[in-house]
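Feature request, filed as a ticket because there's no other form

It would be nice if the structure record came with a short human-readable summary line next to the tokens. Right now we just get the raw output. Example of a typical job, pasted below so the devs can see what we mean:
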Amino acid sequence: MTGHTFGMWRAGGLGLLGLVIRIARAVTPASDTPFPAWQGMQYLRDMASGRGKLEPLDNDRYGRLPWTSARDVLAAVS
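Raw output as currently delivered:
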């Protein structure tokens, strides 16, 4: 759409991300901020590593619900 060519590049693995998190925590001053930047990095690392899997899933806890299409959801909010 813009005429620019985009590509993918590898930023590093989980080990490098862990190192960046440790550095960010060390250089970030203590504050009352609810979500410091390094916390988001930890979340990303944990999801990418597989630590974030919820098992067992309890899909039946809400009973049987019908699926709603994206078209119906968008029509309801417009």
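Something like this underneath would help us a lot:
The mean pLDDT is 88.
The chain has three helices and no strands.
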